[in-house]
Amino acid sequence: MSLEPQDAPAEVESVSRGDELATLLGDLVIDREEHVNAPAFVIRPDQVQETLFKLRDEAGFDHLSCVTAQEYEDRYESIYHLTKFDDRTDEVSVVVPTSKDNPVSQTAEPVYRTADWHEREAYDLVGIQYEGHPDHRRILLPETWQGHPLGLDYDQNRPQIATLREHANPLAEDHRDANDENTMYVNIGPHHPATHGVLHVKTVVDGEQIVDLDPDIGYLHRCEEQICQQGTYRYQIMPYPDRWDYISAGLLNEWAYARTAEDLADIEVPEYAQIIRTLGAELCRIASHMLALGTFALDVYGDFTSIFMYAMRDREIVQNILEDLTGQRMMFNYFRLGGVVWDLPEPREEFFEKIRDFIDDLPEVLEEYHDLITSNEILQARTIGTGVLPPEVAKSYGATGPVARGSGIDYDLRRDDPYGYYENLDWDVVVEDGCDNFSRLLVRMREVEESAKIIQQCVELLEDWPEDERNIQANVPRTLKPDEDTEIYRAVEGAKGELGIYIRADGTDKPARFKIRSPCFSNLQTLPEMSEGEFIPDMIASLGSLDIVLGEVDR
């Protein structure tokens, strides 16, 4: 991809950083690559842990954002996308090739706990095996599944048989005395209102305390990555991101793809369209947090008639505004590469007035929520001091969004890796250091206030924007064909955390590899850490505080 003259300093800085890291890694590096977002180092499959420990402990790369696995004609490949919680723009990729006849690579799990699930998914869908992995089994597909769906030789017409097997107590072999059977296996879900979708939580209790917990996912898996690999950049991929977090984060999902593809194809979005995007994204964030608030109260103390319905009432106002803007209530399909599909609805004054009415009423609404929820003794007893997630544990699992900020981690891509119009607006990142279920609730409620501040400023800018300068789209070629072997990982701050996408181009109008980094996927990994030693009602509260959507977990 050619760089414009003004981008030259960034390239020099990237190469310089790459040389610095190459010196640190020394003989561990067998080759080098340049991805659009970061320098990349190719290493041997038996030196993964040594390399990652060195990058984490000596260079400060404490955040494993994503693990991408893919198959080429001559090899398999795992890519570890690393960055820092304190400096999001400092990125590096570690590329681990393996042979076709022996796709075995050393696990990264001892370095980053989040690699546990990411590598299981890589094994499940692509077929790479990770030596030393503590739980090397499929994660999205049934254990009896034959083949790996993202492999080049996978036969999609092959019939599959998914058997129903009895569940065994996973702690049975741990008992020294065969007569001392105090544990009980409990299935929670997948069809249970407190699982926030089709989630199965395999739970073992000793008396009333949880001693083992295993989230069982994959019931909603649709292989969205493969679907996107079959679509064209320009037109056919954009409708699908709405269906990942299908609840309320449609525009945020669309922005993740738009940002990645625009940087890949060197497309510059007009300033006016960036403001519209920012406005729509923050409306979606409020809608998402309203739903999280209502369902959390429902999980914790079963309050449907007041809190849940109040939250739905206010969320509905946001949905009406988004419907005016996009024409849809859920699957918005409003963003386009280079901008948005159309301008604000006419008459603009009525549209702005509707937004202002909502923003003006919001302080009183939030005060009412605090009276009903955060001041409620039952909710306080159920959430303060439960579901504790220390910051270092959250970082190791790659937790982001309100889950990380509720553990005192000051990390928000809108500020730390600026995109859209955020860096030109006045707003604050909300952080709470309680590390418990109550803190995660407070973060979301306070973030609604910050989103309202952003929306208010966007409305003022859009009102004053000269009519002849309302450019909603860049001049994008009808067919996009990024250069072959161009690779990029980009992310945005979704309502639930870091939503990232990796794309590898092969010179055609379709991606050769399209990988989705779901914030809910990484956040859900923390549930056993928060729940073991607590009671089942505490686990339900912890699960609700994660605010997962299974469409995004499974993809």
Which percent range describes the beta-strand content? 15-25%
Question: What is the helix tally?
Answer: 17
Radius of gyration, in Å, reads 23 Å
Strand numbers in spatial order across the main sheet: 1-2-5-4-3
**Major pleated sheet:** 5 strands, mixed
User: Structural class from helices and strands?
Assistant: alpha+beta
> Can you tell me the overall shape?
globular
Helical content stands at 25-40%
Q: Which helices and strands appear, and what pairs or packs with what?
A:
Layout: H1 8-25, E1 29-34, E2 39-43, H2 48-57, E3 63-71, E4 75-83, E5 92-99, E6 104-106, H3 115-125, E7 129-131, E8 183-188, E9 200-206, E10 209-216, H4 224-229, H5 250-264, H6 271-301, H7 304-326, E11 335-336, E12 339-340, H8 348-374, H9 377-383, H10 391-396, H11 401-405, H12 413-416, H13 437-464, E13 487-494, E14 497-505, E15 511-517, H14 519-524, H15 527-531, H16 536-546, H17 550-554
Parallel strand pairs: 2-5, 6-7
Antiparallel strand pairs: 1-2, 3-4, 4-5, 8-9, 9-10, 11-12, 13-14, 14-15
Structure description:
With 555 residues, the protein is α+β, with helices and mostly antiparallel strands. The protein contains 17 helices and 15 strands. It has helices at 8-25, 48-57, 115-125, 224-229, 250-264, 271-301, 304-326, 348-374, 377-383, 391-396, 401-405, 413-416, 437-464, 519-524, 527-531, 536-546, 550-554; strands spanning 29-34, 39-43, 63-71, 75-83, 92-99, 104-106, 129-131, 183-188, 200-206, 209-216, 335-336, 339-340, 487-494, 497-505, 511-517. Strands 1-2-5-4-3 form a five-stranded mixed sheet. It has a three-stranded antiparallel sheet with strand order 8-9-10. Helix 5 (250-264) packs across helix 6 (271-301), helix 6 runs antiparallel to helix 13 and helix 7 runs antiparallel to helix 8. Residues 1-14 have low confidence and may be disordered. GO terms for molecular function: catalytic activity.
